[in-house]
Design goal:
The chain has 150 residues and is an alpha+beta fold. The chain is built from four helices and eight strands; from the N terminus they run H-E-H-H-H-E-E-E-E-E-E-E. The longest helix has 25 residues.
Length: 150
Amino acid sequence: MKRSSWSVLAVLSLSLLPCCAGAAGAAGAEGLYELDRPAFQDAMLANMPAEARNEKMAMDMIESMVKGMSAVIELKVDGTANFDMKTDMMGRVSEQKATGTWKLEGGNLSMVIKHQDGQEEAKTVPYSNGSFSIEADQIGMKMKMTFKRK
């Protein structure tokens, strides 16, 4: 009798291992992520016309914009997220906050972002080595923002 109860317990334990391993793997992206400023600046320059890259004023403006920007995404263990972006450009400070949810499936990070005005936005992006990139349209330009785990 003892032997059969140990067998049942062993089989039950082994059957729970894949379930637990999957849950730990899905939660592996939790943490604080910051905007990779050099990568953001490179992405902005790539979207600029070549002649604009040769103008000192345009380059100074891009550098100032990137320097005055901070963006942080917090992915919490419970599957919720906080998004916080601040910009300080020419003395004009702006802050945007949002909340949302997230999940990691395979190599893809899916997020649903709920903005302060109530609108929701869904994004699914590749996730690798503690980093992911989000593309957004800003004033008619595609902006790629790469975030790295802090």
